[in-house]
Amino acid sequence: MVDDMNRRTPRRSTNSRLQQIRERFFTADRQNTAEHSAYREITEEVRDRSLQRHEKKIAELGDLQDSIRIKLIRRITICLGLLLLSVFAYKTFSPDINQEAPRSLATWIEQQKMLRQVAQIQQWINNGEAQSDLPPPKNLEELQAWLDQIKLSPDLQNPEEQESSGEPGFVPFQCAAAPIPCLAEDIPGAEGEGRIELSHLVRNANSMLVENGNCEATVNLIGEYNSMFGWRKSEAITKSLLEISVAKCFMEDEDTSNAQIHYTRAYCASVSNPDPHEAMNSMYGLAKIAWLAKDMQQVDNYTQCSEDLLDYHLQTEPDVNTLNNYITLALMHYELTGDTRESIRVEEKGLVAARELAPTAEDYQIEDLLEVMLILQMNLMEGYLTLGESAPLYRLYEDLKSNPMLEDGDRLVAQGLLVMQDIVDNKKESAKNHLLRIIARYKTLTEFTTVWSWDAFDRWQEETKSSRSAIVDEQIKDLRIALASDRPPDSLQRLTKVLSEMGGS
Amino acid sequence: MAIRDQLLQKQIDNTPSHTATDIHETPAPYRRWMPGIRSLLRLRYLNAKESVLIENKQLLRYDVSTKEIQNQVQTKLTSANGIWHTILRPAVVLPLMLLLLAATAYSLWQSHLASLERAVFKNDIPTYSDAVYQLKASQIAADTQTNVEVLEKINQNIDKQTAEVDSLKNTIRDHFSDSPDVVAKLTALLDAIQEKEIPPEVLYKLVKQANDELFISRVPYYISPMVETADCAHLPLSSFLTRLFGGGTQGSGERCIVYALLSFHVDEFRYYNSDKEDHLAFFTRRLDGLPLNDNILGKVHLGDDSAQILLSNIDATSASSTVAMNDGQIQTKLMPQGMPDVYGLESIARRLQSNVIDQYADELQQSWKWKFEQVWSRLSGSESSLLPHATAKLQRRVADATAFHEVQHLIDQFNDLQEPPWFNDMLIKVAGNTPITPQFSNHVLWELSAFFTHLAYGEELKGILLNEFAAITLNPMLRDQPHYYSIRMLFPILHEMNEGTLGSTPPDPALTLSDVARSYKHLAQHVDSIDQISRDAYEQLFEEPLPDIELTDIQERKIRPPLQ
Questions:
Q1: What is the pLDDT of residues A367-392, one digit of tens each?
Q2: Range 132-161 of B in CB contact (< 8 A) with A
Q3: Which structural domain range is residue A125 located in?
Q4: Chain A residues within 8 A of B289 when measuring between CB atoms
């Protein structure tokens, strides 16, 4: 068969022959004779070997490619590495990077500058415009420490003015958190008694402020008085009060810039007095201005400084008038910082100070002291009610009962606060008992004035409305209305209604 | 049958197999190609052959002859895609690669040249002025030295320093050997600072000529001189400690002028037009790294017709003020050392500054860049902050506003701004005991005029500018600066203008800190209208409107001859 094939196609290529063989393979695959089976066995083996060789070749080619790729990647990596190394070396040793300009000249120029500055500071120290707690430095180590501790005067004036303005103003109390600048001219300095001109000034100023609301004219009037007579120490409180009136006048005109100037002057005029009342009012005004400007940090500073001021006065001149100002301080917290706890803290502080002062107080002071204590106790009760703290509320009520200044009106207000707390706590019996006492004595009373402000209470009532039922809220409102100094004619009916709602009669 | 089968078997075994390694699989045919390329070509052949074998295998053709396989591979390599691979790719890619290589080499070379040029300005020029100073100091030391041995050492040092000065000068000149004009101008400048007593105005002219030449020659660098005058005996560095702690050393009575040459890279130049006149401003970045003139944001030298904006200082100042606002140190920035904020300015300053930063932050929040950064930070778990972006914007905007201030100086110099009748009285009041020279008076007037423009063109930065101005005039250390006095005049003028009480004569200047604080607080309340207040006040006091200044898009490099 092969011979035939070779004979018939002697010039055929190997490919043709292979084609024929392949055809025979296919033919053999389809035949079922014994001969063909034997043939299939042989060709199958051949095919397997061909396939193996073929696959081996494919694998070889793959391996070869992989090895070339790896070699290529290795070479590229080496080249890139060398390139990066070269760039790095170039950058490192580049002429414009590696050098740093010499600094002899720069150092010398800096030295000249420093010499001028040190000479300037020395001159300020000599002129009293700067303070130094250390002796002049003798070496560089001391120099930095010396420079760091130099304190420049806030009223560092230009040289011409320094010569004419005399010594800087002295203020005994200044607070680091919010120091208030005091010019010498703002502090009454001359010795002597008050004069008749002062009363004219006050009368005219009040007239201008109250009748005309003319702030500027009052400022001019005060200035004229100063230029004609000069302020005496004995007139300090009057000056301070006048400045506060002017500041309030500007506040009404919403001119906070001018109001600030006059509150500052009021503070400067009053701060050396043993009574911090005007200073506190000034500080309160300044804090209010900061509050209007939404500068809460400054509000906090002024509030802190007010407390420091009171503490300072309490240490140097313990007096009932100082204690009175803790109420103003608490008001600052209520109104400006909105922090009831702080308000309570300072009032507690005032109450403790009042108790400490009581044994040593003069007879004529006792009544005032008890009055202050009474207000503090009542305010504290209101504060604890707004915080929902019944234990200190009851403790203060017991404390209050021992105050000889306690009158019926105050007692009923205090009991009213207890009723409110009981209603909130759902202590119906206790609330009913207190309410019965209030109603029994209610008709004979003409006023309730001890609680200085129901503002905090009203705020609390509004804010916590959702935590109570509508009935309880209505009851509290009725009590509040009935206990206020401007109570309406149907107050008693309101109290009776509350009582009946509790099941009493 | 057996024989036939055996023959068949033998025939199959002897068929030339494609599985044998052909010549193209070996490296031999590719040797004419450069390394790398030859591997790629070989790889391409192997890849083609492999895919041909795989195709044959799928057709159950395991025994194809080598020639047929090679034909198929050849067909594959020369098909539409293959033509690209075999003919076009080497023809296109190779020249492209060579071009790329050449371009890389060229740019590296250019970068190297730029680096050398940068080194001249960054190192050589400041080093030169430093070496000249050291030489002068040594010469002074030699003049006063009586000890022969020490004198000999000093003289040796002088010889060494002279050689160094000459060498540096030559290096600088050699670098620009292709530009004779640049060499001539730089040589004139370098020679001048070697002289013992060259007046500042002469030196400024030489610096201007050098800068103009650099600008025209497209060399993006700028030189700015700093002058310091001292008793010649105080030139040596060693005299400092004695003078500082020993109560001063005896001076010779002879004055020496020392110049430092500070160097800058010109990032950008802009022309501003006013009244049909173009004024040039260079936006420069500090190169020398010396701790000098760190607080100056912009300057114009007397007689110069171009302004310099110092971007490095602006960047540092803006960044530190933003940081100060954030960490509660703004008081330290506003009030000088040890001075409490008794006038309550800190909170106002903070508000003015944070208003601007907040505005920038709001704008930036809308940008795609910020949104992308947020996505990235969420993915990477890192924190992103708007503050650096807002600070960068603040830096750009402060540079823009500073340019208007400096251009106003150019306008005033060009137009020879006349002193208004009220100015001298006001200056006498504000200066107090400070001696007033005509130069000082002019400088205060120019600064006053420029501050009006600065605010008028301050746009959203007006509040920040108000803070910066207040910080200058609240600092008693700056009493030797004209700016200190200009601002003390400016604040009450603007205050009265806004209150409607400003007449043709301005009010008294702010003599005390409380005066400054009062006006500052008032103006802070009306910061939005402060640009208009500035324009109105300028017009009322200078009896002419504030010059209109417009940024142009001029790219042509042109310079004017120096003003006389």
A1: 888 888 988 998 888 888 888 888 88
A2: 133-134, 137
A3: 114-152
A4: 100-101
